[in-house]
Design brief:
24% strand; 6-stranded mixed sheet; 31% helix; alpha+beta; 15 strands
């Protein structure tokens, strides 16, 4: 259940001293080949962290021998020094691992507080420690080391036909991504080239990580990487492989939602009857980002009027007098007006399902969100590491 479930990968997670509390904060994932194919997607935030700029350049070559990840500092908005530190981190990994690949084939990812330089006097020696701890059983330790406000580490795997896709993720806040969400490393021992990995990864993230909208805030550091070792010798059909990648991404995305900061409800928003998929996604995001609705759901109030008001802020095609809304399968709004008795809606369970029918076309989309709680406000007013 980790990035080392696939053959050809080792990993480690250690405490390098980046976090003041002494918790694990440095992870290393190494592709031992025989292939070093890779693909990646990154935040669409125009303010990008230094490791995102670095790793975007690395992934243009389609070859990644190792990924080094740290928590306890985002290395974002840190100027030229921050980029130099990222470069030095990649150089250190390449040097420590014995020259099987160069720094330009080492991806770097960071997460934590924005606007603070990393303590390189602790991070660089930590790479030596992590390299010495590399193991085929090190995936769980690596997943633990990339946590920030996460309460649990997140891993997933799919195995079939003699090959495997495994992965780890971190994320509990700033979950409103474009193409990715927070930090994710996926691995496979399938024998595939970087172009195939890129195609499968972009297809998977589009309907999984890109449909998570917990708090409307997009990170500067979002990174999703997919590495292939080819160690199984198996060449799966593209459709089979793409579905396995999508399944792992979907599992991890649901774990992110389930661990979102302060949340007491997971909200599944399905928009149906849309004229286009883009319309369905736009409406779903608008509903997901409506703070009044999120507060109502926290209070277990089926306030469907707030769903309609969110729909009305979009450019999607719809007739207001044909809108229908169901909450937990009770159609509380029909044809833009009062529907079934709202007292029929039970919201006691953790998952709340909202269905918005635009009655315009045949397209649909699902967005996942959370309620808005006092715990979320407290955590993000106190967060400093």
């Amino acid at each position: 259940m980790s990035v080392t479930a696939a053959q050809g990968f080792t990993a480690a997670g250690i405490a390098a001293g980046i976090k003041a509390n002494g918790n694990p904060d440095l992870a290393l994932v190494v592709n031992n080949g025989p292939k070093l194919a890779a693909a990646g997607v990154f935040t669409s935030n125009r303010v990008k962290a230094a490791p995102v700029h670095w790793s975007e350049q690395v992934l243009r070559g389609g070859v990644v021998g190792a990924v080094v990840l740290n928590s306890g500092g985002a290395n974002a908005c840190t100027g030229p020094k921050g980029f130099q530190d990222t470069h030095a981190t990649a150089e250190k990994v390449a040097e420590t691992l014995g020259g099987d690949f160069n720094a330009g084939e080492v991806a770097v990812a960071s997460t934590g507080l924005i606007g603070v330089l990393l303590p390189m006097d602790k991070l660089l020696p930590g790479i030596d420690t992590a390299a010495a701890a590399l193991s085929a059983d090190g995936g769980e330790a690596a997943a633990i080391a990339i946590k920030t406000t996460d309460t649990v580490h997140k891993t997933a795997t799919v195995s079939q036909g003699g090959w495997t896709v495994g992965g780890m993720a971190k994320g509990a806040g700033m979950l409103a991504p474009g193409l990715a969400t927070m930090l994710v490393v996926l691995t496979t021992d399938a024998d595939l080239d970087s172009a195939t990995l890129d195609r499968a990864l972009r297809a998977a993230t589009r309907t999984t990580f890109d449909r998570v909208d917990s708090d409307g805030c997009m990170s500067t550091n979002d990174t999703v990487l997919l590495l292939a070792s080819g160690a199984s010798g198996q060449v799966p059909a593209y459709e089979e492989f793409a579905e396995a990648v999508r399944t792992v991404c979907d599992d991890l995305a649901r774990q992110l939602i389930g661990d979102a900061e302060g949340a007491s409800k997971d909200i599944r928003i399905e928009v149906i009857g849309a004229a286009s998929e883009d319309d369905a996604v736009e409406v779903g995001r608008s509903i997901a980002r409506n703070n009044l609705l999120k507060c109502a759901i926290h209070g277990e109030d089926p306030n469907w009027g707030r769903v309609l008001s969110a729909i009305g802020t979009t450019k999607a095609a719809f007739d207001p007098d044909r809108l229908n809304v169901a909450i937990n399968d009770v159609w509380v709004c029909k044809n833009g007006s009062v529907g079934e008795d709202r007292d029929l809606v039970s919201m006691k369970d953790r998952e709340v399902r909202i269905t918005a029918d635009l009655s315009t076309g045949e397209e649909s989309a699902v967005i996942w969100a959370n309620d808005l709680t006092a715990d979320y406000v407290h955590e993000n007013s106190a967060y400093s590491s």
